[in-house]
Every structure is written in structure tokens, then in C-alpha cells.
Write a structure and sequence with these properties.
Keywords: Membrane, Transmembrane, Transmembrane helix
Oligomer: single chain
CATH topology of the largest domain: Growth Hormone, Chain: A
Protein name: Major Facilitator Superfamily protein
Shape: globular
Pfam families: MFS_1
Number of strands: 0
Subcellular location: Cell membrane
GO molecular function, one term: transmembrane transporter activity
Distance between the termini: 34 Å
Length: 485
């Protein structure tokens, strides 16, 4: 778009929302139908789980990298690249004749994880200041809702069109988002200085791959196996090397000074612990509900019915996400975050102690949606308020990444607990699920304690000029009261 043209912002948010929700659906629709994919492609149960893991690994690597590239090269251009990769990966998965091609497509789709930090950055660059907080909250809420909505929609789509439609339908939406991005998203005028570090990017990829492979495979390899311990040790060494390199770099991929800001590190800790609870639950609750009641628990639900029992999660998550900006304005981000964690803890307490009736699942999911929706929307606004504009993409990308890492940890812990409590037939026992739900609840208790550390309101920061980068950076580093609003 030529610089002299008036910048039309009317379609920016709808285009970004379409890209974000499409990415979330591509990521989550597959979880309930892994057995169907396993049978169709003639693979093993351990191999088919990589349909989820490959996507998670790829997203963990590319989300912060694309966020930083967008800050440097132009968010509009990099967003288009992310959407094209997301669509291409979905299309490859849709026609995959074997598990190898399926995994290639899923890994390519993970590149689309960059949509989230780029969307946050574009919102902050292009929308009027008074619209930034509500828009960020809506984007964050839709990302979380998409994760829950995928489980709800998977059953009906498979029943009507087959499981490959789970790739075709979101791919169509992504193509539409890519076309409208090309024509309607203005060229970025805010650029970050400095060189892009490929060494830092490689180290980031290596420690994330080592960590997530170890966490994902620990249930089958054994937590004490040499492979798991070796990968965890490698992850620690690579992480320390990466942090040292980033700390000394004049143009870091992730600004470690920014990551040490009180509002940033506390919010990232909440994201990590909430990720453990959310993704650990979504990976195992459908299987719990699909278990035959003859085993003493479960409802014998179909994929469709199990999804409907989780529908309150998506509905209340959406509503609370929309309400989060107003609640934050009134009570402050700290109050909203703490309140959200309280709802989540209550949900897991109910799920742990009472899960024999379907209404108990419905109530638990409604409470969890309220907590997750409000917290996720608020965390994004904390990050936006706490960092300078040119670091918005990288900071939110890392926050999303930390949530994904937490999700991998939650899934791994649940797999180990459930797998350690099995019947002679090899099927999980009710006790295994109950202990697992309790552990996820404890993660949410930890999130509540972390939320208490988030700085209160940020009136002083709000009074700073939006583009006053040095003032924002200094405020974030010293922990000016009010960063968290």
C-alpha cells in the first residue's frame, strides 16, 4: 500500500481473527480422531501421536522466530508467509497417502503458529489505541476457543465428510485469510533495528526439540531412560547457551532484559502452568468420556457426544474472553488473572472428586472456560502493555510458546499417570484419571500463586506515549506499577 494512501483499518481485525481461529482449529481438530487416522494410514498408536507432536514442535520453533522476523521485515509480509505455510501443510495432510507425508504436512502447518504474535503486532501498529486492548483480548480468546471448539466440531465433521475434511475445511478458511491479508493488511511502518540471528534461532529450535521430544516420549521410553535423560540434559545445556548468546547479543531474538521484566516473567509463568492444565485435560478428557461404563467410569460417548460435553468450555471461554478487557479496566489484570485461576482450580477440584455424571462434566467445563478465557485474554494484554511496540510480536510469540511447552508437559504427565494405572486388559483405571486431574489442578494452583506476583495496575505506563519505545522498555525493566493492566 503506498505511503500516501489513507490506511483503512476496518477489515484488519476480521482478517486476523480468521487466520488465528483457522490455525487453532487445524491444531486441535485432530486430537479426538487419532484412532481413525491410525487405522486409515495403517500405523501404530505410538507413531500416530506424532500427528500432534510434529505440529507442536514446529509451532514451538517458528512462533517466536516469525514474530521476530515480522518485527524486522514487516509483519504483513511475514503473516502472509505464515498463512501460506499453514494452508500448504493442511492441504498436504488432507491428501497424505501415508503417515510420513501426514507428519510432513503437520510440521509445515506448525509454521502457522507465527500468526499469533504477528496478529498482536499488527493490532498494536494499526488500530487506534483505544481498540488495542479489546482486539488483543478477542484474538487471545479465539485462540483458546479454537482449541476447545476443535474437539466439539471433530465428531460431526468426521461423521458427515470423513476425517480428511478436518484438514480441507480449515485450509479453505486459511486461503481466504491469506488472500485478504495480501489486499487488506497495510504494509508495516514499524520496524525493529539490528540483524536477525540465525545462530540464536538454531539454538532455540534445538533446545525446544530436545525438551519436547523428551517430554512427549517419556511415557513410552520411561522417565529414567537414557534417551529421556540425555535429551533433557541436552535441552538444559542448549537453553543455557541460547540464553547467554541472547543476553550478549546487540540484536537478540528474544530480549532477555524484556523477559526479566516483572510483568513479563510472572505472566509467562502463569501461561506455562495454565498450558499444563488446559492441554493435559484436552488430550485425555475425551478418552475418559468415551470409555465404556462397564469399567466403572466413563459414559461410552461417541466422538461427537464427547465433544458436546465439552461445549461449555468453548462458550464460556469466548464470553469471558470478551469480558476480560472491561474486567481488567475495573479490577486490574492481577485481579482478573487471580480470579481466572480460582475458577480453573474449582473446575479441576470438581472434576477430580465428582465425574460420574454428565452434568458434573458440563459444570466443570463451564467453570474452566470462564477461568481460561479471562486469563488468556488478560495475559496477552499484560504483555502488550509491558513491552515496547517493536517487541510485541516476539514477546507474545514467546508467551504462546511457553503455553505450548506447558501443554507438552501436561500431556506427558497425564500419559505417565494414566499409563501407570491400568487394568489387566491394559485399559486405564478411574483412579489414574482422578490422580491426573488432581495433578493438573495443582498446576492451576501454581498459576494462581504466580498470578499473585503480577504487578498491579499500570497507570504510569498508560500515560506514556504509545510509540515512546525507551520509556516503555525502561518501565518494563524496572517494574513500574501498572504494567499488568
Amino acid at each position: 500500500m503506498p505511503a500516501h494512501e489513507k490506511r483503512d483499518t476496518r477489515l484488519i481485525l476480521p482478517v486476523l481473527l480468521l487466520g488465528v481461529v483457522s490455525y487453532a482449529l487445524i491444531q486441535s481438530l485432530i486430537a479426538p480422531v487419532l484412532p481413525v487416522i491410525q487405522q486409515d494410514l495403517g500405523t501404530t498408536q505410538s507413531t500416530v501421536t506424532w500427528v500432534l507432536t510434529a505440529n507442536l514442535l514446529s509451532a514451538s520453533i517458528f512462533t517466536p522466530i516469525l514474530g521476530r522476523l515480522g518485527d524486522r521485515a514487516g509483519k504483513d509480509k511475514v503473516l502472509l508467509v505464515a498463512l501460506i505455510a499453514l494452508a500448504a501443510g493442511a492441504l498436504i495432510s488432507a491428501v497424505a497417502p501415508n503417515i510420513f507425508v501426514m507428519l510432513v504436512g503437520r510440521a509445515l502447518s506448525g509454521v502457522g503458529g507465527g500468526v499469533l504474535p504477528l496478529a498482536f503486532g499488527i493490532v498494536r501498529d494499526e488500530l487506534p489505541r483505544e481498540r488495542v486492548a479489546p482486539a488483543v483480548g478477542l484474538i487471545a480468546a479465539l485462540l483458546a476457543i479454537g482449541a476447545g471448539l476443535g474437539i466439539v466440531l471433530a465428531g460431526p465433521i468426521v461423521d458427515l465428510l470423513g476425517y480428511r475434511a478436518l484438514f480441507w475445511l480449515p485450509a479453505i478458511a486459511v486461503v481466504i485469510a491469506a488472500v485478504t491479508t495480501y489486499f487488506r493488511i497495510p504494509a508495516s511502518q514499524s520496524r525493529a533495528p539490528g540483524r536477525f540471528s540465525w545462530t540464536a534461532s538454531a539454538l532455540l529450535a534445538l533446545w525446544l526439540v530436545s525438551l519436547l521430544v523428551a517430554l512427549t516420549e517419556a511415557a513410552s521410553w520411561g522417565w529414567g531412560s537414557l534417551r529421556v535423560l540425555g535429551l533433557l540434559a541436552a535441552a538444559v545445556v542448549l537453553l543455557v547457551t541460547w540464553v547467554v548468546l541472547e543476553t550478549r547479543s546487540a540484536s537478540p531474538l528474544i530480549d532477555m532484559r524484556m523477559m526479566r521484566a516483572p510483568a513479563v516473567w510472572t505472566t509467562n509463568l502463569v501461561a506455562l502452568l495454565f498450558g499444563i492444565g488446559m492441554y493435559g485435560l484436552m488430550g485425555f478428557l475425551p478418552a475418559f468420556m468415551q470409555t465404556s461404563p462397564s469399567l466403572g467410569y466413563g459414559f461410552g460417548a461417541s466422538v461427537t457426544r464427547a465433544g458436546l460435553l465439552m461445549l461449555p468450555l468453548s462458550v464460556t471461554m469466548f464470553v469471558s474472553g470478551l469480558a476480560a478487557p472491561r474486567l481488567t479496566h475495573r479490577y486490574g489484570a492481577k485481579g482478573v488473572l487471580v480470579g481466572g485461576t480460582v475458577f480453573a482450580v474449582g473446575s479441576f477440584a470438581l472434576l477430580t472428586l465428582a465425574h460420574g455424571q454428565q452434568w458434573q462434566i458440563l459444570v466443570s467445563m463451564a467453570l474452566l472456560g470462564i477461568g481460561f478465557g479471562a486469563a488468556f485474554a488478560t495475559m496477552s494484554n499484560v504483555i502488550v502493555a509491558a513491552v515496547p511496540a517493536h517487541q510485541t510480536g516476539a514477546a507474545n510469540g514467546m508467551n504462546a510458546n511457553i503455553r505450548s511447552i506447558g501443554g507438552a508437559m501436561g500431556a506427558a504427565v497425564m500419559a505417565s499417570i494414566v499409563g501407570a494405572h491400568v487394568l489387566p486388559s491394559g485399559l486405564p483405571t478411574e483412579r489414574g484419571y482422578s490422580i491426573g486431574f488432581a495433578v493438573l489442578g495443582l498446576a492451576c494452583v501454581g498459576a494462581a500463586l504466580a498470578a499473585l506476583l503480577v504487578p498491579r495496575n499500570h497507570q504510569h505506563v498508560a500515560a506514556l506515549p504509545l510509540r515512546d519505545e525507551e520509556s516503555y522498555a525502561e518501565a518494563a525493566v524496572v517494574g513500574v506499577p501498572g504494567l499488568a493492566r
